[in-house]
Amino acid sequence: MDRHNIKLIGCASTLIFFSCFCTDVDSASGFRYGSISWTSSGNAVNFTIQCAFQQVVQDIAVGDIVQLTGQESPQFLFGDSSLVRILKMKITSFSLQRQWVMGEVYLNHHYSAPVAPDGSAWNAQFTGCCRLDELKNNAGRPWVLTADIDLNRANKSPLPKILPLVTIPYSNGSAPRVTVASDDFENVEWSLGTPFDVGGSIKITPSNHSSYVQVDIGQLYSESTGPALDCMQSSSAPGCMFRLLQARPSFMALTVEGWVKSLTNDIRSVFATSVASPECNGADPSTYCKIATMAIMMDGNSITVGHQLFPRNTNLTSETFDVCETRDLCDELNTQYGPAVGGPLAHRWVHLTVIRRINPMVSLPGCNSSYGVIYQVYVNGISLGSSATLCPPVSSGSSSDRLYFGAYHPSLPSTRRFNFDGYLQEWRLWHGVLAPSVVVQMMTMPLRENREAFTGDPTVGSVTAANFESSYVLLADYDFDVACDGGCPVDVLRPQYPKGNDARFLATAVGNVTSASSDSSGAVFWRSAVAEMSSIVSDGRLVLSVGGPGQYQITLYLSYLGGRGKVPVDFVVELVAAAWDGGSGAFRMLDPAFAGNLFLPNVSVSAAVLPLVASDRCRGPPMDPSLPVARPGGPCVVQYSGPPGSAGAADVTWCGYGECRMDVFAGSLLRLRLDAVDPQGAADPTDRMGFGFGRVPDGMRFTPTGARGVEVE
Fold first, then answer.
1. Which of 41, 225, 272, 317 could, after both became Cys, cross-link 295 (CB 3.0–4.6 A)?
2. Measured between alpha carbons, how far is residue 130 from residues 54, 70, 99, 140, 142 in Å?
3. What is the DSSP letter of 333?
4. pTM
5. Phi, psi of 354 (to 5 degrees)
6. Residues 551, 559 contacting (CB under 8 angstroms)
7. For 171, what's the count of Cα atoms within 13 Å in the CB-facing half-sphere?
8. Cα–Cα dist 399/274, whole Å
């Protein structure tokens, strides 16, 4: 007789509810829950998307079909350049009182092959905007849920099981726990997107010779001269990029942004140019006759931005921004993502954005120019401030000019190269200024040609002296995503943009540059409520590392053993400040936001395993009046038809505020009961009310996991 483990998920309180939105209702700041699952037959795949949103609900019924709309209407991308822009959802449940609706979207798609052309899994995405504004992490942000479809390794995915919003009592300093179940938890692996987790990246390791990535922008030099260049009508033209890197006065703003993880606390060059200086006077434009018209450097505590004014001089005209002068950012870096190793910027993924503006009609002492430049720096979407107006770089340009990632004048003596040691991912150059909200948006938005139906073509637009503060056009996007799981030597890197494998924008690796491990999404996750991968154990339980009460968004991935059929479940955990009150046997609420509720309500599940074979005439638990009545005064002995030594009393298990487990044998009858209790009054804390013996709430389902051949009532 097989023995199985049953996991019962119990959730706390009337505070738990689903949420959603309907036709012609704006979904902005309403997304609360989503999951993707799929089955297949050959190359034909059937997708089921479960989603829940908070929104005004009226005039709907279970079974209605509604169209999902919103600030950025939800769309589904299959990963092979096909997408569905109009999604229709079948309503499965809703609440007029709580203002939520939940449902499922069903999609069918036929792939041309079991896997993508590069041999990797097809990467399907469910995306839209926006998340809840009241979240402690990712508030108001777009969502992107991704699923892997490798039809050579799996013909279906796991099916996640979790309430869209799980409410848990939180005591100061406690480590709350949440459990996500599956339809087949014995054969499922769980994983998390860690803070600042990125897609494919490159790792640059210093060696005896310089290691870096370079782009031959000298090929763009000839296109930057002459009257044919019109950067107002063709703002993403290659010649415009060269002029912006030179900081020419009629080109008002350049934005450079990307993800970086430095493995040292020392100052290192992340991004720099090498452009010929007019002081070379016709001499061979070697590195010593060139200047860095723009440079971005970092150490464990600060970001330095600037440029050179004279060749043969490594000094920068620059300004340095200490991240800990912005207290909120410093605290976040030092606490949210685990203990710091060195400075707060070292050994962790951070996102840098540097905006350089032209300040016209400014005369600065010693500049010999009628304009200056101002740098503004963001880290993780938080502004560190702006520099003073600096003298601009003066360069002439040549066919041997370079753009470097991870180096600063590689031909200089090794002590002055500032060679980078770490990882780079998704670096972009923009014509124009990214507004603060756009800086945050671009941190997590993958820009890909197959997503243009959703994002639009980022290279199209016009940036002028009149609109550069509110307009931006993509010049180049180097995602550094290599089709290798990690550790492979890197040679040539093709940009995502410009499109069409433009040879003028190819990047080449020099020295020790390798691919780094990637997650399945290819997109960056900004903040996670979970501190470390070790916080999740093999059975789906995870421990939250949070700063206090509130709502936290979590994205969890489930796959079959070996990473097969990887799919996401995205849900919200609400932590309510509470302290255990022994007199009432419940958590006393400390959160003033829930005025009138003295105690946190609780949902308990009781389970009883009923006997297969009864010795003598015995009666089971009180909840089971159907069994024979025991002989007066005689014991009630239950024998299971299981392995030797399995005899014992009927097993009754209670659980609440989380999960409980019990062992039963195939063929046994398992009976479950739900009890909801809510201590009400301070005068008599034992006074309780609930629906344990009344009508079961609408939508309540018992879903045991891992049960095969076990009858559930």
1. 272
2. 11, 8, 17, 5, 5
3. I
4. 0.60
5. -125, 120
6. no
7. 6
8. 11
